[in-house]
Amino acid sequence: AACMLRAAKVMAAGLKGGDRIVKIDKERIADLQEYMEVLDELRPGQVVEVAYIRDGAEHTVKVKLGISHRN
């Protein structure tokens, strides 16, 4: 099963609409393709550190991965 950062979990972790994810567990994220590739290597239930940009500043938060229902 693929992993995803579910909107509810991300919002509960403190991310907001407009925040740009730039790293997941030290793996740089430049675009949606890289985001999906990094998540495909992780496991549901795993806790990862997510770095994001808000208002020009980088922040980090820990997020527990959910299960993706995409094929």
Description:
With 71 residues, the chain is an alpha+beta fold. Helix content is 21%, strand content 38%. The protein is built from two helices and six strands, in the order E-H-E-E-H-E-E-E. It has helices at 7-12, 32-40, and strands at 3-4, 20-24, 27-28, 47-54, 57-64, 66-67.
Helix content: 10-25%
Give the strand line-up of the largest sheet: 3-2-4-5
Cα gyration radius (Å): 11 Å
Provide the β-strand percentage band: 35-45%
> What's the helix count?
2
What string gives the helices and strands in order? EHEEHEEE
Which overall shape is indicated by the principal axes computed on the Cα atoms?
globular
The overall pLDDT average reads 80
Secondary-structure-derived class: alpha+beta
Largest sheet: 4 strands, antiparallel
Distance between the termini: 9 Å
- Low-pLDDT segments: none
Count of beta strands: 6
Main traits of this protein?
single chain; 71 residues; alpha+beta; 4-stranded antiparallel sheet; two-stranded antiparallel sheet; 21% helix; globular
